[in-house]
Amino acid sequence: MTDPNADASAPLTREAQGHDLRAEDLTLGYDETDIVSHLDVQLPPGRITVIVGANACGKSTLLRGLARLLPARSGSVRLDGRDVTSLRSIEVAKVVGLLPQTPVAPDGITVADLVGRGRYPHQGWFRQWKPEDDQAVQAALEATGTAELAERRIAELSGGQRQRVWVAMALAQDTDLLLLDEPTTYLDINHQVELLDLLTDLNRSHGKTIVLVLHDLNLACRYADHIIAMKAGRIVREGAPSDVIDADVVTDVFGLDCDVVPDPVSGTPMVVPRGRHHVRAMTPDPELATS
Amino acid sequence: MTSSTSSTIDLPAPTDEPAVVVRDRRTRRRRAIGVTGALGGLTIVLFVLTMMIGETRLGPLEVVASVLGFSDSPSTDFVVRTLRLPTAVTAAAVGAALGISGLCFQKLLSNPLASPDFVGITSGASFFAITAIVLLGLSGFAVSVAALAGALLTASLIYLLAWRDGITGYRFVLIGIGVSQLFISLVGWVIVQAELFDAREAMTWLVGSAGRAGSTELPVLLGALAVLVPAVLLLSRPLGVLELGDDAARGLGVGVETARRLVLLVAVVLVALATAVAGPMAFVALIAGPIAVRLLRGTGSGLPAAALVGACVVLAADLVARQLLPVSLPTGVVTGAVGAPYLIWLLIHVNSEGRGG
Question: Which stretches are transmembrane (chain B) (predicted)?
Answer without folding.
Answer: 32-53, 85-105, 117-135, 141-160, 172-192, 220-242, 262-289, 301-320, 327-348
